Structures are given as C-alpha cells and as structure tokens.
Amino acid sequence: MYYDVILSGFGGQGILLIGDILAQAAMMEDRHVTWMPAYGVEMRGGAANCTVVISSETIGSPLADRPCGLVSMSKPSLLKFQDKIKKGGLLVVNTSFVEEDLLTRDDLETICLPASELAFQEVGQHKMANMVVLGAFLAASSVVDFKTVEAALESLFQEEKQKLIPPMIQALHCGINYREKQEV
Amino acid sequence: MRERIMMRGSVALAEGALMAGCHYYFGYPITPQNDIPEYFSQRLPQQGGIFIQAESEVASINMLLGAAAAGARAMSSSSGPGISLMQEGLSYMAGSELPGLVVNITRIGPGLGGIAPSQGDYWQATRGGGHGDYRLIVLAPNSVQEMYDLTIKAFELSDKYRNPAMILGDAILGQMKEPVRLSDPKIQHLDKPWALRGARGRGPQLIKSLYLKDGEMEKHNWHLQEKYRKLQDADTLVEAELEDAMDILVVSFGSCSRIVQSAVRLARGKGIRVGMIRPISLFPFPGKTIYEATQTVKKVLTVEMNTGQMWDDVRLSLSPGCQARLMARPGGGIPSPLEILEEIENFVKAGDHVAKSVC
C-alpha cells in the first residue's frame, strides 16, 4: 500500500500535530512512514503544512506532487493544493474557515465539515478542530486504524499532557461520525 | 533490536553524536540547522557535556580545533555562509591532523541565499573548502536513520584518519521525521597519544600546521595525500542497486537520491532496466563502483540539486564510451519523480547520435 497526504492550514491550528499523530500511528502499524513539514519564513497565522507518506515498502520521496489526499483547514492552503490532488483522491475541508464555493474539483471524494463549530459543540473547544478533521480523514481513507491512532495519542502525550487525550479522542470520533453519517 | 522511534533528522544526528561519545558542541545560530544546537543545548548538560553558543562561526571552529587538540570528540554545525566562515579553521585542522565533525545543513547559495533544500555546497565540501591541498571526509545521509548512523561513522573515520569530517545534509534531511532505531553499536575509540592533555610523565608535544623548513611542507602534503589514498581504499561508502543488461544508470546523493528512488521505481514499472548508484561518502568518492558499472551500462544520468557539481566526479569515473547527462535543479528547485522519470525515458530512447561527453 502507498498513501500520501498533504495536511495544510494556518500556523497554530495543529496541522503539524495531526501529521505527527498520523505518522506515529502508521509507524505503530509497522508501516514505512515519512513526515515532512513545509519550511519557510513562516509565523503564527502564516501558512503551515506537512506531507505524510505511508507505505508498505521503503519510501523514496518524502514529498508529494500528486497526493492521494489533502486536508485543508484554510483558504490559502486549499487554493495552493487542490489542483495537485490525484484524480479520484480525497479532499477534507474545514468549512469553518473555507467557503465551499472555492472548491473546483468534481473528480474527488470531498468531505466538507465545519470542524471548528463541531469541535466547540461536541468537545467544548474550538481548538480541537484539527482532531475532528483528522477523524473525518481517517474514516474516509482507512489509512490507519482508529484504535492505533488512540494508541499513538497515548505514546505522544505523556505526564501532564495526558489530560488532553480524552477530549482529543472525543473530537476524533466526532469527525469519524460526521463522515459516516454523510456516507449514509 | 531497539524499537523504532519517530524522530526528526536533526535530532537523530545529535543522538548519533552523543552515542559516539561527543560531549562538546560549539556553534552559532543559523537557519536551517538551528534544531541541532537547540537540541544539544538541552541534552549535552544532562550528559555532563559542554554546549557553547560561540560569538561567531570563526570562534566555533577554533573552539572545535582546541577541543580536538585536547583529544575530545567534539563537533560544530552550521549552514552555508556559516560553513564558509569556518573554512580557515577547517584548513588548520586538516593541516594539524585534528579530527572533529562539522555538520552542514545547507542553505541555497551564493550569498545569504535561502533556506530551502539545495546541494550547492558539494564542491566546497568535497574539495577541501579552505586553502591548501587537503580534503574533508564527507558523508551524505539520505534518511533519518542515516543521520544517526553516519554521524557515528563520521566520528570514527575522523579519529581513524586524524582528519576533520563533514556531514552534508539539507533542510529535507534536517526537518523530516522518519522512524529510526537508535542502535547501540560498539563504538570505536582510538588512543590519542598525540593529544595535548598536560605533559606530566612525557616530553613536550606540539600540534601545528606551520612547517617552514626546506621540503618539510612538501613531505607533509604527501603524507596527507597518502592518508586520503588509504581512506579511499578502505572506507569508501556507496549504495549500488545494479542489474543485468541495464538500459541506464542513475547517480544521485543525499535528499535528491530519495526522489530519484521513486523515479527509478516508476521507470522499472515501465520495464526500463535502471541501475542506481548513491555515493554515501562524497569524499572519498566511489569512482571505482561507477567505473565498473559503466563497463556495461553506457548511459549515465546524474541528478542533483545544484547546477552540476557531483557531475564532475561522475564524469571522471566513467568507463570509456559513455554518454553522460545531467539533470540539474539549483536554487531550491526540487525535481519531482515524474520529471526525473521523463528524463530517464528520453535518455533511454535517445540514439547514439547524442554527443558523447569527454571522458
């Protein structure tokens, strides 16, 4: 198997973090995996993105020209990356920050979800929007198992940070459920 | 076997240095290598080591020279312009036969340039870089695992040959995270009777690079060359993936070789017989491996993220009658696997009318 995804948005939205979580889970499933952040003269509120490649074989390029998936949590990131997605690929858009009329591709599976509102309604915290989006992405791509993602959270968040895990899992499931309802 | 840990390249490199017994770091901040000093500033004091943010790169390299003269495993790191500032010190270290590691997480040059991935410092790294007739031992990792493994190797080779070593990486290798096993190999530590640690119980010793007597300097230069010859014979590192009846051979190093690997897989999927050679030690350069491979395969494509620097070494290594082509992307340009695939396909299709390179 081979799957590459670009996770993108604003600095501060936890974009690189959901990349870390996804990569950690992939490693725990004994996959080959690379996590590559975009590196520029960036700042809080500026553009942030990372590319995660997951494969059953050793990985060549850690970059993605024609990614299988794009997670977009900001308008500039959608405009920058939506044309690159592979035909038939997956697009997950946080409509709390992106207007749906900016979507130009009709050859993709597209999930639009107001992740920030959902995170606030279900978990009480806007900032869990990244986990909601990750949940929807995982439900649609099946690239790693939810259970492994939960185990990845256990290994990434230790000591005083452990208290973040339950709301993160709650937000993750909020995204999973949103995708599954859409499916029906 | 140790478990796999998801780790950033810069951090894996620092862990490799600690595993090798390096307890001294001297450096001055510059992007994109800052993760290395940041990590050391926290880890070295925990290990009873010394971390110094020096007042400049010139000071850093001379602190490294001093630590090496006292027999310590020590290192520095920088990027592009900072490495340029260190060249005088590196030349002194090579002349004084002092080991030590300098890491270059390159910037794009020339000048202040930029911070995107680039391989434009190949010539500077492999030709010595400073004044005089010397070389550095230059290792070029292409994965986070190799950032760890080759750092250990660089310290060992540096001590073995009493010559400064360099790890040549870029922002891709520094920033990327991959699973890595922090193996605990048996680390080679050699006695350093030449080190200056106080003269109690022995006669005075001098470490210097100044030789003014008639013929002394020529003799010293030949001695250095003899070391480089031994290094070439015993410790050249290369990864070669060759097959029978190859249509084409692709040569690439460092981060760029990862992208080439993707392209080579695509090409093989299309039935093209592609061989790949990845120099891991850039000095000593694995010219012999290229020479032997090109006795059968006659089309050689070099792909690198500069205007064609390793290409010089590749062309010097070819068997007679080869056609050599270069795919070059300088200034932060990164070729895509599909672009490289196209280059491979075009080259394979091209007949013998293509101008043969001088080789």
Structural summary, described in words:
The complex is a heterodimer of chains A (184) and B (359). Chain A has 184 residues and is α/β, with parallel strands linked by helices. Chain A has one domain (2-183): Pyruvate-ferredoxin Oxidoreductase, domain 3 (3-Layer(aba) Sandwich), CATH 3.40.920. Chain A has 6 helices and 6 strands. Chain A has helices at 15-28, 75-81, 115-123, 129-141, 146-156, 165-183; strands at 2-10, 32-37, 47-55, 69-72, 90-94, 109-113. In chain A, helix 3 packs across helix 4 and helix 3 crosses helix 6 (165-183). With 359 residues, chain B is of the alpha/beta class. Chain B folds into 2 domains: 4-235, Rossmann fold (3-Layer(aba) Sandwich), CATH 3.40.50.970; 238-349, Rossmann fold. In chain B, the strands form 3 sheets. Chain B has a 7-stranded mixed beta sheet, with helices on both faces. A 5-stranded mixed beta sheet of chain B has the order 9-11-10-13-14, with helices on both faces. In chain B, helix 7 links the parallel strand 6 and strand 7. Chain A binds chain B through residues 20, 23-24, 27, 32-37, 39-41, 58-63, 65-66, and chain B through 4, 6, 32, 115-116, 171-172, 175-179, 258-265, 334, 336-338.
* CATH class assignment of the largest domain in chain B: Alpha Beta
Tally of individual domains of chain A:
1
Q: How far is it from the N-terminal to the C-terminal residue of chain B, by CA? A: 46 Å
Q: What is the CATH class of chain A? A: Alpha Beta
Count of separate DSSP helical elements of chain B: 13
Give Rg of chain B in angstroms.
21 Å
The CATH superfamily of the largest domain in chain B turns out to be Thiamin diphosphate (ThDP)-binding fold, Pyr/PP domains
The total beta strand count of chain B reads 14
N-C termini distance of chain A: 27 Å
Look at the structure and give the mean pLDDT of chain B.
Answer: 96
Percent of residues in β-strands of chain A: 15-25%
Residues in helices of chain A, as a percent range: 25-40%
| Proportion in helices of chain B | 25-40%
**Count of separate DSSP helical elements of chain A:** 6
Order of helices and strands of chain B: EHEHEHEHHEHEHEHEHEEHEEHEHEH
Strand order, largest beta sheet of chain A: 2-3-1-4-5-6
Oligomer: heterodimer
- Note the main sheet of chain A: 6 strands, mixed
Greatest contact pair?
A: A-B, 21 and 24 residues
Average residue pLDDT of chain A: 94
* Sequence stretches where pLDDT stays below 50 over 5 or more residues of chain B: 354-359
